[in-house]
């Protein structure tokens, strides 16, 4: 017989920690963009388009990461709820 245990509260806490970490990274990206806002104007010649290209890329990569983590977090929370409902239903069957 196969058995497994799911720490429901711990599983939910991990999802919340991941979500908060991504939010914290967003604050860091915004701070970085604010601090570096004047770089394109200060960059002369060929450096300016390269700078803008890379800044656009890191912002796009962050946005993609946020979207993927949000979708995965929602799925993970749904899995948590399914396990919890199954556990509760199993307990109900056991005590009947």
Structural key phrases:
96 residues; mainly alpha; 3 helices; ESAT-6-like_sf
Outline:
By secondary structure, the protein is mostly helical. The chain has helices at residues 8-35, 39-42, 47-95. Helix 1 runs antiparallel to helix 3.
Can you walk through the features of this model?
The protein is mainly alpha-helical and 96 residues long. It has one domain (8-95). The protein has helices at residues 8-35, 39-42, 47-95. Helix 1 packs antiparallel against helix 3 (47-95). The mean pLDDT is 81.
Please count the beta strands (DSSP E, at least 2 residues each). 0
N-end to C-end Cα span: 22 Å
The coarse silhouette is rod-shaped
* Category by helix and strand content: mainly alpha
* Beta-strand content bin: under 5%
Low-confidence stretches: none
> How do the SSEs run, as a string of H and E?
HHH
Helix content: over 70%
Q: Kindly provide the radius of gyration, computed on alpha-carbon positions and rounded to a whole number of angstroms.
A: 22 Å
Biggest sheet architecture = none
Count structural domains: 1
Count of alpha and pi helical runs: 3
What integer is the average pLDDT? Answer: 81
InterPro entries: ESAT-6-like_sf
């Amino acid at each position: 017989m196969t058995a497994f245990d799911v720490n429901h509260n711990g599983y939910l806490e991990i999802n919340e920690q991941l979500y908060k970490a991504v939010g914290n990274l967003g604050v860091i990206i915004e701070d970085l963009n604010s601090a570096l806002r004047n770089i394109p104007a200060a960059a002369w010649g060929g450096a300016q388009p390269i700078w803008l290209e890379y800044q656009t890329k890191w912002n796009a990569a962050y946005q993609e990461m946020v979207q993927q983590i949000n979708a995965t977090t929602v799925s993970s929370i749904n899995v948590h709820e399914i396990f919890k409902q199954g556990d509760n239903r199993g307990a109900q069957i056991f005590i009947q």
